[in-house]
Amino acid sequence: MFRASKTAAALAASLMIAAPALAQDSSGEWRQTIYLYGMGVSIDGEAQIGPVTVEVDKSISDVFDALKFGAMGQYRLENGTWSFSADATYMSLGDRGTGPQGIVGARLNTDQLTVMGTVGRRFSPRLEGLFSLAYFDLSADLRLGAAGQNVSASRDADWVDPLVGLHYTSQLDDNWSLSLRGDIGGFGIGSDLTLHGWATLVRQQTPNFSWYLGYRYISYDYETGSGINFQRYDLSQYGPGAGVAWSF
User: What are the C-alpha distances in Å from 208 to residues 32, 71, 77, 98?
Assistant: First the structure.
């Protein structure tokens, strides 16, 4: 089950960091933007619970087949010098399987929430320095059934990672622009290592509306507990995406 209090704490910390900086530079005109987007995600890596290690290798089509619900969105506030953004991604996946002759049935449900709060400081018209706090919450529920007997097990893991990064933008012409973002974090505070990259090609359709195509990559290497309670997740998620944005 998601621990909303930790999510709120992570976002509150981001706001506390951002507030003094924003207050010091309020001369520019503030602009707000809301982004809605979707991704075709592939997932690969390794997950371990206790002594059991599972290789994860799901293509985009596999993820869509297993997807029960997904939502992705971002909010950004900027004034030309400072920026603050909050990005949230949620996926609920369900998968079924059976053993030989259908004797053993299995159902695996996983929920994943990622929330990232970012403060940015623009050093030039094209380059912005970033500091982020990213909250990850993973929940897995496994149910096995055989000969009228049912067994279930659940595991949860959540952590907060600090990240530092750069955001580069280039205006290609009056309507098209290119955006490149890269972050690195974890540093043993939450995960051992977290990497994040996002490239987008943006079409400014009107002064207040744009659409974009992109490619996003997120990976993390996290472990906690010991013995039968040991958990390790070394996973990468990546794929193309598309979205729309409204500014005001």
Answer: 10, 23, 14, 51
Contacts of 181 (CB under 8 A, 6+ apart): 130, 165, 166, 167, 168, 196, 197, 198, 199
The tens digit of pLDDT for each residue in 176-213 reads 999 999 999 999 999 999 999 999 999 999 999 999 99
Closest CA to 183 of 129, 125, 240, 115: 129
Model confidence pTM above 0.70: yes
Given the candidates 2.40.128, 2.20.130, 3.30.1050, 1.20.58, the CATH classification of the domain at 4-247 is 2.40.128
User: CA 43 to CA 55: how far, in whole Å?
Assistant: 10
Domain positions in the chain are 4-247
